Amino acid sequence: MLDHAKLDAAAELVTSNYQLMLGAMSGSLAQVLDAPDPTSQAAKTRLRLALAMNQLSFVRNAQSEFGPLVSFTEEFMANGVADAKGDISGPLDPSLVQHVSDILESLQGTLQLWASRDSQTVERELRKVALQVDLLRASGSSYAGALIKAKFGKVRNLNLVQVDSIGRKRVSSEFVRSLVRWHFVTTYADSFLFTHVKNGYDLAKVVYQNGKVEEVFSITGETPGYVTYAEIERAFHPNTTASLETA
Q1: Are 129 and 150 in contact (CB under 8 A)?
Q2: CA distance 28 to 9
Q3: Cα separation of 246 and 6, whole Å?
Q4: Higher confidence at residue 215 or residue 8?
Q5: What would the pLDDT profile of 115-127 be if each residue is shown by its tens digit?
Q6: What's the first-to-final CA gap in the chain, in angstroms?
Q7: For the residues of 9-51, what is the DSSP string, one character each?
Q8: Angle at CA 230, nearest 5°, toward 209 and 111?
Q9: Pairing of strands 161-163, 227-228
């Protein structure tokens, strides 16, 4: 069965590290805004360097978590194989191991990409302050007065979000949590499906924690009269409570 407690633990492991990075980025922006010359090119350079260090710290922490993440990945793969075979005896198929490794590599790459995007967002916020100061000064405000107005609430209201493939905006850390959960759910489901088909079976079913059983489906789509996995795959979203069983 898909271990939902471990799913929560794995997601929290990465999300907490990402939240620390976002907090550090917000702090870096606050320090630059509190300096005497926050609209200067030197301030922009200081912020860029500070954000680079924030990202580096995140990557280093992520590398220290790589061992636990690999262990979690192996456990979810083993759970999927066991649900398909009834046990976990014998060596794992090299093709499955490589596929799961590719999923983990994709997760790490996406996390680093999102960290870079959030860093760019923080840099844009500083540029907005500089632009707003210029506009306020053009309307007659003093530099000091314009600066106070421009940076008021900027850090407090710093909103770091990501946009998904269908245009929904969510706080970055929530996206990270969903991404990590999806990684492990996919690892479990793909391991089950791969092993089930390799053992010569095609029919399987989705079973929820509350005992509800989804319609029996055909993994390959080659068994007449049954829906395909593609039609029930929506059950394996990041917050799923489902597992797979032999039909």
Answers
A1: yes
A2: 29
A3: 23
A4: 8
A5: 898 899 888 888 8
A6: 14
A7: HHHHHHHHHHHHHHHHHHHHHHHHHHSS-TTSHHHHHHHHHHH
A8: 75
A9: unpaired
Contact call for residues 107 and 113 (beta carbons, < 8 A): no
Report how far residue 119's alpha carbon sits from residue 115's, in angstroms, rounded to the nearest whole number.
Answer: 6
Measure the CA–CA gap between 215 and 24, rounded to whole angstroms.
47
Q: Cβ distance 38 to 129 under 8 Å?
A: yes
Q: Residue 211, class by beta-carbon neighbours within 10 Å (0-12 exposed, 13-18 middle, 19+ buried)?
A: exposed
Q: 3-state DSSP call for residue 169?
A: strand
Q: What's at 30, amino acid-wise?
A: A
Query: So what's the pLDDT on residue 49?
Result: 93
Q: How far apart are CA 55 and CA 208, in angstroms?
A: 39
- The Cα–Cα gap between 47 and 182 comes to 33
Q: What is the largest CA-CA distance in the chain?
A: 78
Rg of the chain (C-alpha set):
24
Pair 123, 207: CB distance under 8 Å: no
**CA atoms of 216 and 231, how far apart (whole Å):** 11
Task: Give the pLDDT mean for 197-203.
Answer: 88
Cβ(70)–Cβ(191) under 8 Å?
no
Q: Which residue carries 């620390």 as its tokens? A: 20
Report the C-alpha gap between 204 and 218 in whole angstroms.
Answer: 7
DSSP H helices in the chain: 4-34, 41-64, 66-85, 94-138, 143-151, 172-198, 229-232
Task: Please name every residue paired with 245 in a beta bridge, in sequence order, or none if there are none.
Answer: 205
Global pTM reads 0.79
d(CA 53, CA 232): 43
